[in-house]
Design goal:
The structure is a single chain. With about 210 residues, this protein is α/β, with parallel strands linked by helices. The chain has a single domain, classed as Glucose Oxidase, domain 1 (3-Layer(bba) Sandwich), CATH 3.50.30. Helices cover about 15% and strands about 30% of the residues. The strands form three sheets. It has a seven-stranded mixed beta barrel. A two-stranded antiparallel ribbon has the order 2-3. The longest helix is centred in the middle third of the chain and has 9 residues. It is globular, with a radius of gyration of 17 Å. The model has no long low-confidence stretch (mean pLDDT about 95).
Length: about 210
């Protein structure tokens, strides 16, 4: 078994989606002065690697901490969609994507993380692929992008309406290219919020 970390580091002044509040992570207690260490974090739930739930864009009253835990762990499937400005449905996905699994889209765009290119020119998913994922009843869709579509976020809403959650700002997906079978574990904080920062990992069966 091998564990691959698919999450970005949470740190002070880390990249955030344009218009979102900055991240402030500061040490407020020091061992040499206060006899213990402590840090304070001020962060929006869409900074860094995170999970979007339906409350983010739908008139939904269910916080992310109220969603079933089994929604956040499943067998994973990696789709190599590098160099695709529009991520489209392909016939081979029908056999690659399993029902009730978690689908990861590898675009390699994480190399631009934090830059204007990353936020303004990222690929988007077309609706046909979105409808296919709904038909497959996948639990989550994750990608190394800040978003899988743009305003008015119709793909987001289609997935949310079918209880499919979205992981954004993943990294290290290249390590799964030849991984074979793997499981994705991506648990949100137990927090009363629309979405949550998350530690996302893949457990590869060797």
């Amino acid at each position: 078994m091998k564990i691959i970390d698919l999450s970005h580091v949470i740190e002070n002044n880390m990249p955030v989606y344009p218009g979102d509040p900055e991240v402030n992570l500061v040490q407020i207690k020091h061992l040499d002065r206060d006899k213990y260490s402590n840090h304070r974090l001020d962060i929006g739930m869409h900074a860094g690697t995170h999970i979007d739930s339906p409350m983010h864009l739908l008139d939904c009253k269910r916080y992310i901490c109220e969603l079933p835990l089994e929604s956040f762990i499943a067998e994973g499937c990696l789709l190599d969609v590098r160099n695709e400005a529009i991520i489209k449905m392909k016939p081979e996905y029908d056999s690659l994507v399993k029902e009730n699994g978690i689908v990861l889209l590898y675009t390699s765009y994480d190399k631009y993380y934090g830059t204007k290119e990353y936020y303004e020119n990222h690929p988007c998913i077309e609706k046909e692929l979105c409808r296919f994922l709904i038909k497959k009843k996948v639990k989550m869709v994750g990608m190394d992008l800040p978003s899988l579509d743009r305003y008015p976020f119709e793909v987001h809403k289609l997935l949310f309406e079918n209880s499919i959650y979205i992981m954004e700002n993943l990294t290290n997906l290249w390590q799964l290219l030849n991984a074979g079978r793997f499981e994705v574990m991506a648990f949100p904080l137990k927090i009363k919020a629309d979405s949550s920062i998350a530690r996302v990992v893949a457990r590869v069966v060797l």
